[in-house]
Amino acid sequence: MVVEQIACHCCDLVMELPEPDAGSRAHCPRCGHLVMYSTKNGYQKAAVFAVCGLWFLLLSLPFPFLAFQSQGREQQVSLIQSGADLIHLGFPELALLLFLFILFIPALLLGTYLVVLLPLGRGFVGRWMYPVVRFLFSLHPWGMAEVFLIGVLVSLVKIAGMADLVIGLSFWAYVLFSIFLILTITSVHQQQLWMELDRTSGICRIPVKASAGSALAQGLQSCHHCGLLHSVHDHHCRRCQGRLHPRVRSGLQKTWAYLLTACVLYLPANLYPIMHTRLFGSDDPSTILGGVVALWQHGSYPIAIVVFVASIVIPVAKMMAIIWLLLGVHLGYPHQPEVRTRMYRLTEFIGRWSMIDVFVVAVLVALVQLGGLISIQPGIATLAFAGVVVLTMLSAMNFDPRLIWDSLSQQEQHAVNCGQESLN
Ligand SMILES: [Zn+2]
Ligand SMILES: [Zn+2]
């Protein structure tokens, strides 16, 4: 039974979604994009996971997160205290980055899930829940709890040789919080949640007439948030009330603007030191690449590879991939649209992992402050590099992958029109 017609977010192909059965997955037949999956009792599970996640996040705040001991002196930090220490040391920007990406946004995500899932579980759906769900899914890329954890592990390896490290109770609570956050997010698929809201509220959407092929070629557009099909003349989505645009508005210009700014910032991010280690009064600045080389020389090969891939390979590959995608669209390159769409999805997925090095610096600066003995200060490259990561993420978000398929759709349309003319 066909429940809803949507257009693929990646290639604009109109397709019919069947009734979501537990364990079923629906892929776009043209570009392979996963358009929906459904899990058994997904809403109930996600609500329980979200409550557990928030509980462990609360537990991760008051207790020691890490302790650092050297020559009889000890520095102990909790998550809250590390933010306060960063502000006190004169690095409010780093404190703000930490607070936003590892505490505030993940907590807001879990809280918003509960605001929607608890009433939904009791069979209540209010009109206000639709914009809330829209907001919820726009938050997803910015919650970086698991990226932070990898950053903490890298930090531990970096200073393991300098002193004794003690992992505190809050660290384990934060690990459990990250696991529950991932479980919450993966329990409910966006498309399934939109359909469930309609089903519970009893709203029956009258489908727009659409046939197979590109939505835009048929004078249709799909909502960027909930996927509902509309005429290209509509301005607001009937379901989630989001603004409608056949394609991301000024998407190419915005993608170029964010990308070029990221490219400019990439130079100071790599040329200037990302942190300074002050050992017995002598200053040892290190760049991103210098940090990788030091890890390698100390024999921490896996961690050196992780940092090299996250901080050097991913940002460069991402910028080159976006340039390639943009040029393909500008030049109307019609070949390998599936490959380019896959590359786009990968670029969008991996972007946030480059934040590892920024978190490493934040953790080390908060943790290693033993006065004249040893202390770590952030370098000028830290903020530049955080800027590169955020700007490349915004750049990828503003690129509309359906543009890759548009030149193809025009050719298809042309072929159909030619066929009809020859029949006449
Ligand atoms: Zn598709
Ligand atoms: Zn919508």
Question: Could you describe the 3D structure shown?
Answer:
The protein is α+β, with helices and mostly antiparallel strands. It has a domain at 249-424: Butyryl-CoA Dehydrogenase, subunit A, domain 3. It has 14 helices and 13 strands. The strands form five sheets. Strands 11-10-13-12 form a four-stranded antiparallel sheet. Strands 6-5-7 form a three-stranded antiparallel sheet. Helix 4 (129-139) packs antiparallel against helix 7 (190-201). The radius of gyration is 24 Å and the shape is globular. The protein starts with a strand and ends with a helix. The relative contact order is 0.15. Residues 223, 225-226, 228, 237, 239-240, 242 line the site of one zinc ion. One zinc ion (ZN) binds next to loops.
What key phrases describe this protein's structure?
14 helices; disordered C terminus; globular; four-stranded antiparallel beta sheet; alpha+beta; binds zinc ion; about 425 residues; about 55% helix; Butyryl-CoA Dehydrogenase, subunit A, domain 3
CATH C-level category of the domain at 249-424? Mainly Alpha
CATH-defined topology of the domain at 249-424: Butyryl-CoA Dehydrogenase, subunit A, domain 3
Structural class: alpha+beta
Separate helix tally: 14
Sheet bearing the most strands, described? 4 strands, antiparallel
**Helicity level:** 55-70%
**What is the count of β-strands?**
13
Tell me the distance between the termini: 36 Å
CA-based shape: globular
Q: Can you write the helix and strand succession as a string?
A: EEEEHEEHHHHEHHEEHEEHHHHEEHH
Major sheet strand order: 11-10-13-12
Q: Give the bound compounds.
A: zinc ion
What is the subunit organization of this protein? single chain
Strand-residue fraction?
A: 5-15%
Cα Rg: 24 Å
